[in-house]
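REQUEST ID: PR-0412
SUBMITTED BY: lab tech R.K.
PRIORITY: routine
TASK: structure prediction, single protein chain
INPUT:
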Amino acid sequence: MMVRDRLKEQIRSAVESAQRTGALPPFEIPQFDVLRPKQAEHGDYSSNVAMVAAAAARKAGGAQSNPRAIAQAIADQIALASATSTGAGSTDAPLIGSVEIAGPGFLNIRLADGWLQAQVPAIIAAGAAFGNSDRLAGQRWQVEFVSANPTGPIHYGGARNAVLGDALAGVLQAAGANVQREYYVNDGGSQFKWFLETLYARYMNLFGHPVAIPEQGYVGEYVIGYAQLVRDDVGDALVSMDRAAALVALRPLGRAIVLADLERELGRMGVHFDNWFSEQSLYDEGLVQQSLDYLDARGELERRDGAVWFKASAYPGCDKDEVVVRSTGSPTYLAGDIAYHYDKFVRRGFDKVVNVWAVDHQGHVARMAAVMRALGMDPDRLIILLYDLVKLVRDGQEVKLSKRKGNLVTISDVVDEVGSDAMHFNLLSRGPESVIEFDLDLAVAQNNDNPVFYVQYSHARICSIFEKAAAEGVAVAGTPADTALLVHPSELALVRKILELEEQIDYAVDRLAPHNLTHFASELARTFNAFYRDCRVVDPDNVALSAARIELCRAAQTALVRVLTLLGISAPTTM
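STATUS: complete
OUTPUT:
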C-alpha cells in the first residue's frame, strides 16, 4: 500500500476514534485528500480532512464544526496511536512523526524518522518490484503503438511513438495490469500497395528492365536494398511473370523484409512487441464483413447513394456520417478500423486499449468513440493517446524528415549518433501534448547539462562506492546494517525521495503519460548526490555508520534502476 493510502487509513481511523470518545460528533466521514504540499516546510503530506469534516459535521447537526478544532481532535488521536505503537525500529514503526495544524485547519504531516529508517531494507528487498501496485490487477490492457506503414525504415519522428507506448506499457504493468504490446501492420492499404509497386520497379531495374517508379511511390535508396534482398531470395523468378502475378508473389516477400527491418530497428531502442497484427488479415478472415454485419444488425448502418454509411452523426462530436463501403463495393479505411477494434474488444476481450497516435489524427478521436458506442461498448475503454511533433535539431538547425523523398533520418541513424538511452530520456521528457526539440549536440554531451548523463552517472557513482567499500573491507556483502543510524537530514531526504517512486508510477497511470518519471529520475539523482556530498559513505573509522549508508546507497540504486528500466534506459556501472 502506498504511503499516501496508509496515511488516509490512519487519518480515517483517527476520526473514528475521536467520534467514539466524543471529541467529535457522529457524522459520515467524507472523501478527503492527502497530498504532497508544494513547500517542503509544510511537511511530507497535507490533508484537508478537517475542512471537509466540518461541513459534514454541520450537516449532521453536530455542535463541533470548527475546522481547526476538528483538526486538533484528529491530531490528538494520531499522536495517541503513535505513542502506543509497539513497532519501533521495524517496518511496523509509527508512520507519522508529527502533525501540525495550519491555516483554516490543514493537517501538515511529517513521517516518523524511525519509520523512514526502517524502509531502507524493505526497498532493497522489493528489488525490481519496488514501486509496483495492484491497482490494475486482473485487468487486460493492450497498448497499440508505432504502427507505421510497412513501407520502409521508421523516420525519427516515429521514435516518440515507440518510446511513449513502450514506457506506458511498462507503467501499466507496474500497476498490476496484464499488458500486450501490439504493432498494427498496415499491409492492406494504399501505402503498402505503392510500396510494392516501388519494390517491383527496383527489382526489375536490377535485371536491366526500365520499369518506372510510380508517382506515388517511394524514391528512397533503401528500397534498392530491399530489392536486392528479394533478388537474393528468389533470383530472377519474378522477371518472367506478368506484372500482376509478380506483385502478388512480391507481397509476402516485401512484407517480411520490411517487418524484419522494423523489428531490428525498434529492437535497437529496446522496444519489442508481443504481437504484430496484420491489417490484411481482417479482410482475409472476413472480420471486416463480420463487424459490419454486427453494426448493421444493431441499426448503425444506412445505405444511400450506392454506398454503405456508418451513422456517426448520431453520436457526440461527429457532425456527419461516414462511408464504410464505397459504391464500388470496396471497404474504406474506417471499415478496417471498425473491424480491428471489434477484434480487440469483442473477439480478444481486452478491458482497456490504448492507441498511441500522432496529433494529426485528432480528428478521428470522436469518430472512434462513436464506433465504440455503436459496438455497444463504453467508449472510455478505448483511450486515444495523442502526441505532438518532434523537431530534431543539429547545429541549431532543424533536420527535416521524409520517407518518400529519400532524405530519410531513421531511428537507427539517431541511435548511431546519440544512443538509445538519450533518445528515450529526451523523448519522454515532456508530456505527449508538447512539441519536443531534441538537441543532438546536448544529447551526446558528457556533462551534467545532459540529464540522462547526469542520472546514469549517479548510478555509476553508486557502483563505484560499492567497489571502494569492498576494497577497503567496509560494509562488504552480508555485513549487518543498523539503519537507525541514518539520522542526517540528507540521509532522510534521500529515503523520502526514493519512496516517492510509488506515487510517481501511480501518477503516470492516472494520466497515461510517463513523462513525470524522467523528472523524478533527475530529482532522485540530485538528492542522492546531495547525500553523497554531505555524508561520507565509506569510513573505515566508523564501520557501523558506513554499513548503514551503504544500505541507503543500495536502496537508492534499487529506485534508480527501477525508474530507468521503466523508461527503457540502461543503468551503466561505469562511465
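NOTES: The chain has 20 helices and 15 strands.
REVIEWED BY: pending
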